[in-house]
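Query structure, 163 tokens:
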């Protein structure tokens, strides 16, 4: 892993991440985002502090910084689903063959974690381990979303041709 890293001019998570405490939706401009980064960085909401950008933590090449690669990789605890790896694509297909995203997809499978690919303009896909319990409240809510496809995986997550 390549550390330490700083956001610098990258504000991709400020755009892709929902921040409930300030009523900011996914894939929406944050009113506090400036050309130099977060305008309220020192007093930012806890939701923002809790966000975990895997690139910032040293995963992937420096060239894969989210604002350049057009996707953000993070991990979060999602209610009763536990840990979930997410890839927010700002450009549909940006993570299909990118080295960091490929590594993260394999890592999620190896660790039997759900992987949620969230696309700005092309629907979402949630890949869950074959043995996952689909009775949880969160999964039931997610399955009712119009733009979400839930797929179980056994050994590997399907590539772009089979999504």
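Result returned for the query:
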């Amino acid at each position: 892993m390549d550390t330490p890293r700083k956001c610098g001019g990258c504000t991709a998570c400020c755009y892709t991440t929902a921040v409930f405490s300030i009523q900011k939706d996914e894939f929406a401009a944050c009113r506090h985002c400036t050309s130099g980064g977060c305008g309220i960085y020192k007093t930012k909401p806890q939701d923002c502090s809790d966000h975990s950008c895997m690139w910032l933590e040293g995963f992937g090449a420096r060239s894969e910084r989210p604002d350049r690669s057009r996707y953000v990789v993070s991990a979060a605890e999602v209610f009763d689903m536990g840990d979930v790896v997410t890839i927010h694509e700002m450009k549909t297909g940006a993570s299909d063959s990118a080295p960091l995203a490929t590594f993260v997809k394999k890592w999620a499978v190896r660790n039997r974690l759900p992987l949620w690919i969230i696309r700005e303009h092309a629907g979402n896909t949630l890949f869950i381990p074959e043995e996952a319990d689909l009775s949880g409240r969160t999964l039931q809510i997610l399955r009712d979303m119009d733009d979400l496809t839930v797929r179980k995986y056994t050994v590997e997550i399907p590539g772009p041709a089979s999504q």
